[in-house]
Write a structure and sequence with these properties.
Helices cover 78% and strands 0% of the residues. By secondary structure, it is mainly alpha-helical. The longest helix is centred in the C-terminal third of the chain and has 31 residues.
Amino acid sequence: MTYWRSVFLVLLGACSYGVLSMVMKLGFAAGYTPIELSSGQLLFGGLIMSLLAAVFSKERFRLRYVWTLVPVSVMMVLASFLYNQAVSHLSASLAIVLFFQFTWFGILLEAIANRKWPSIEKWISILIIAVGTIFASGLGGKGLGDVSLFGLVCGLLSGFSFAVVIFMSGRILPSLNPYLRSAISICLASLILSVMYPPAFLVNGRLLDGLLPYALLVALFGSVIPIFCLAVSVPRLGNGLVTILSAMELPAVVLLANFVLHERVDLLQWSGVLMILAAIAVPQIKWRKLIFPARRLREKSGSY
């Protein structure tokens, strides 16, 4: 797996989360609840990923993998559940801003684990993403309004939970086949959520009454694609860079809202999108080569 292919997979996974937001919104408009869509996402995501693992994974399933990956699945469920709670108590724009705090949470987790202060490029990216997120979400022009403290806590904890998911993806069984790893993680998450909220739609007729297409779409864009992309890319790129690249989700949400849902996106939001795209590019630029090309050329010529 090459470096740039890994970068592409992270961006693909982040964009798929952006598509997920659009599908969830359409599902809510059709009358389905957040719990129904979240349960469908993990249930069918686990089934799809298990089929892919059976076909493409050459590694044998072992029971110890299940116990080892339990923490990852728990944090996946927490991130989804807490974000749903935040959305139900706050405006969508504020919930997104709070969730996107996973960027600096992720950088902080990596710094603590590696006992190494993040590079200046990463800090610049985090700062630009923070400002760009406020603008792109539309919060910059609307303000906070009446804010629920419970919603604020849930929003921040959802971002932290997602940062932990990314962090664990690079630390727990990083060499395990990504198909098998993703299948186990998603199936476990589905089982945990089913214990909390039994999937009543399997027996009450809601599934065949129109929920199935939405469940398959949220499973594909909310579980299969992003979790697989993280399983492949995090061991190669590291948690900090993947956290920054994952911020691509919000520009994807804004673009889809404008071109697919035909929602009005103002100039301030477009400027936020451009800021996030610029922030994603910052860690990829070789600044020393760009600023001091003559020095690099002398160092290279002096080595002969």
